[in-house]
Amino acid sequence: MKIILVWAYENYKYKKEKKVIDEEEAEMVMNWIEQKVEEVKSIENESTNQT
């Protein structure tokens, strides 16, 4: 899942730089993706601590 989130983040970052999508929209999506990456990391840490 983390790979998909990183890919999506980089995809929006590239589109923002090339002005394919609105900068504000790209920032909003990129912030959401960053939050989801943190959630995934938290879940990974929980599962690591349980073993």
Provide an overview of this structure:
With 51 residues, this protein is mainly alpha-helical. The protein is built from two helices and no strands. Helix 1 (2-17) runs antiparallel to helix 2. The longest helix is centred in the last third of the chain and has 28 residues, at 23-50. It starts with a helix and ends with a helix. The mean pLDDT is 93.
List the helices and strands and how they pair.
Blueprint: H1 2-17, H2 23-50
Helix pairs in contact: 1-2
Number of β-strand runs:
0
Largest sheet: none
- How many angstroms does the end-to-end distance come to? 21 Å
Question: What is the general shape?
Answer: elongated
Give the mean pLDDT. 93
Beta-strand percentage? under 5%
Helix content: over 70%
- pLDDT < 50 stretches: none
Radius of gyration: 14 Å
Short recap of the structure:
The protein is mainly alpha-helical and 51 residues long.
